[in-house]
Amino acid sequence: MLNLQNKTPKLLVIGDLMIDHYLWGSCERISPEAPVQVVNVKSESVVLGGAGNVIKNLNALGAQVDVISVVGGCEISDELKALLTDIKVSSQYLITQKDRITSKKSRIIAAQQQVVRYDRESTDEISSESQKQILASFKDIISNYDCILLSDYGKGVLTFELTQALITLANKNGKKVLIDPKGLDYSKYKGAYLLTPNKKEASEATNINIVDDEGLTQAITQLKDECDLDVSLITLSEDGVAIYDDNLRTHPTVAREVFDVTGAGDTVLASLGFALACDVGIDDAVKFSNLAAGVVVGKIGSATATLNEIIEYESSLNKSTSDEHIKTLDEITLLSKELKARDKKIIFTNGCFDILHAGHVRYLETAKSYGDILILGLNSDRSVTALKGENRPINVQLDRAYILAALEAVDYVVVFNEDTPYDLIKAIKPHTLVKGGDYEGKQVIGQDIADELKLVQFVDGKSTTKTIEKIQQGN
């Protein structure tokens, strides 16, 4: 995968903010008052929706995000600002228009089935004064950002005049504008870098029925020409993403399991913007967004994908390289916290693994069987020499790490330079610590940190020392 870890591009999102509100319960009877279900509500949750879901996705990827939008003079606006604060996104560029109601979509869910939805919102176009304030803020801060994302949900923020003014100003400042479009008239998006319509939306906007390659070619080229786009793009659901700039090509989807496509369009817009803001080419950016979308459609509800989840997902598709699984101490510390938040059971073991043999592989396969994620602490060259003598290691630490990271049983490798892996174990705080059977009855480093210790018996006759002896003897 692309090396996007530790990248923190700055992106600006402009569009329709809303709250997605869920009432979760069960239904066991029909109301005697009317032929409707009676839902006994057990819990309630609220999350950012609309352009807010784009912000959440960018935040999950590690971007620095700001937002410009218009909210109403209502309690919902205060609730929305609190949700932004929770993910450390500023509300300083939110404009209050007192006669508006901020969008809040409430869904009643019983047995994972949506029973009814009711909305509170304003959908009229924002006032001319609000549009002026947005444009003034945009002029003041545009130079701070690597990329601009417009998330249009048709709730009145992105008017024709405002959208055109934003695109014109962005182009003058050399900033790419990516837009998730809404409605049938795409002329208000003219001059953008790219749009992200799905096949149905593109068909309606172009009046071309996209049922084959010919229809796709006509629609995607028409969008590029009529909207004066740098890149024309159409998402094709399970068939992937089609791109047209100088030529047409399609990148296939990489979704393994689809549970819910809610918010997948927001993920595509956010991940494309994130990658392009990191100076990634359009084809690689689309591949990255395909992976991100593959993660979120495997979750229930509007979801996000972190870089670590995308790397893990790509690995599950056998498309990642070994070096993506070699982590620093800081990276594995953050990753461990994220994995635990996703209820993954972490296993840790360590060793020199100088010349890899079948005994090593079986040991690691057994270790992995105790949980979900196996993290391997690898002794550095210096610590191997301290343990084994001046003639060791045979293989340098980078080579050893790369080979180990390629094993199916090993999820992540971290090289440590200390004599013991205690600091590394302390940072990871694994659920299970695994060591060889020769530690029976002995104190194991890190045993006081892990929840449990597992000892694995070695395969008889298999050891690095014996392998080296055979080579030296010419056998």
From TrEMBL:
<dbReference type="InterPro" id="IPR011914">
    <property type="entry name" value="RfaE_dom_II"/>
</dbReference>
<feature type="region of interest" description="Cytidylyltransferase">
    <location>
        <begin position="348"/>
        <end position="475"/>
    </location>
</feature>
<feature type="binding site">
    <location>
        <begin position="198"/>
        <end position="201"/>
    </location>
    <ligand>
        <name>ATP</name>
    </ligand>
</feature>
<dbReference type="GO" id="GO:0005524">
    <property type="term" value="F:ATP binding"/>
</dbReference>
<comment type="pathway">
    <text>Nucleotide-sugar biosynthesis; ADP-L-glycero-beta-D-manno-heptose biosynthesis; ADP-L-glycero-beta-D-manno-heptose from D-glycero-beta-D-manno-heptose 7-phosphate: step 1/4.</text>
</comment>
<keyword id="KW-0548">Nucleotidyltransferase</keyword>
<feature type="domain" description="Cytidyltransferase-like">
    <location>
        <begin position="348"/>
        <end position="462"/>
    </location>
</feature>
<protein>
    <recommendedName>
        <fullName>Bifunctional protein HldE</fullName>
        <ecNumber>2.7.1.167</ecNumber>
        <ecNumber>2.7.7.70</ecNumber>
    </recommendedName>
</protein>
<keyword id="KW-0418">Kinase</keyword>
<feature type="region of interest" description="Ribokinase">
    <location>
        <begin position="1"/>
        <end position="320"/>
    </location>
</feature>
<keyword id="KW-0808">Transferase</keyword>
<keyword id="KW-0067">ATP-binding</keyword>
<feature type="active site">
    <location>
        <position position="266"/>
    </location>
</feature>
<dbReference type="Pfam" id="PF00294">
    <property type="entry name" value="PfkB"/>
</dbReference>
<dbReference type="InterPro" id="IPR014729">
    <property type="entry name" value="Rossmann-like_a/b/a_fold"/>
</dbReference>
<comment type="pathway">
    <text>Nucleotide-sugar biosynthesis; ADP-L-glycero-beta-D-manno-heptose biosynthesis; ADP-L-glycero-beta-D-manno-heptose from D-glycero-beta-D-manno-heptose 7-phosphate: step 3/4.</text>
</comment>
<dbReference type="GO" id="GO:0016773">
    <property type="term" value="F:phosphotransferase activity, alcohol group as acceptor"/>
</dbReference>
<keyword id="KW-0547">Nucleotide-binding</keyword>
<dbReference type="GO" id="GO:0033786">
    <property type="term" value="F:heptose-1-phosphate adenylyltransferase activity"/>
</dbReference>
<keyword id="KW-0119">Carbohydrate metabolism</keyword>
<dbReference type="InterPro" id="IPR004821">
    <property type="entry name" value="Cyt_trans-like"/>
</dbReference>
<dbReference type="InterPro" id="IPR011611">
    <property type="entry name" value="PfkB_dom"/>
</dbReference>
<dbReference type="GO" id="GO:0033785">
    <property type="term" value="F:heptose 7-phosphate kinase activity"/>
</dbReference>
<dbReference type="InterPro" id="IPR011913">
    <property type="entry name" value="RfaE_dom_I"/>
</dbReference>
<comment type="subunit">
    <text>Homodimer.</text>
</comment>
<comment type="similarity">
    <text>In the N-terminal section; belongs to the carbohydrate kinase PfkB family.</text>
</comment>
<keyword id="KW-0511">Multifunctional enzyme</keyword>
<dbReference type="Pfam" id="PF01467">
    <property type="entry name" value="CTP_transf_like"/>
</dbReference>
<feature type="domain" description="Carbohydrate kinase PfkB">
    <location>
        <begin position="10"/>
        <end position="304"/>
    </location>
</feature>
<dbReference type="InterPro" id="IPR023030">
    <property type="entry name" value="Bifunc_HldE"/>
</dbReference>
<dbReference type="GO" id="GO:0097171">
    <property type="term" value="P:ADP-L-glycero-beta-D-manno-heptose biosynthetic process"/>
</dbReference>
<comment type="similarity">
    <text>In the C-terminal section; belongs to the cytidylyltransferase family.</text>
</comment>
<dbReference type="GO" id="GO:0005829">
    <property type="term" value="C:cytosol"/>
</dbReference>
<comment type="function">
    <text>Catalyzes the ADP transfer from ATP to D-glycero-beta-D-manno-heptose 1-phosphate, yielding ADP-D-glycero-beta-D-manno-heptose.</text>
</comment>
<dbReference type="InterPro" id="IPR029056">
    <property type="entry name" value="Ribokinase-like"/>
</dbReference>
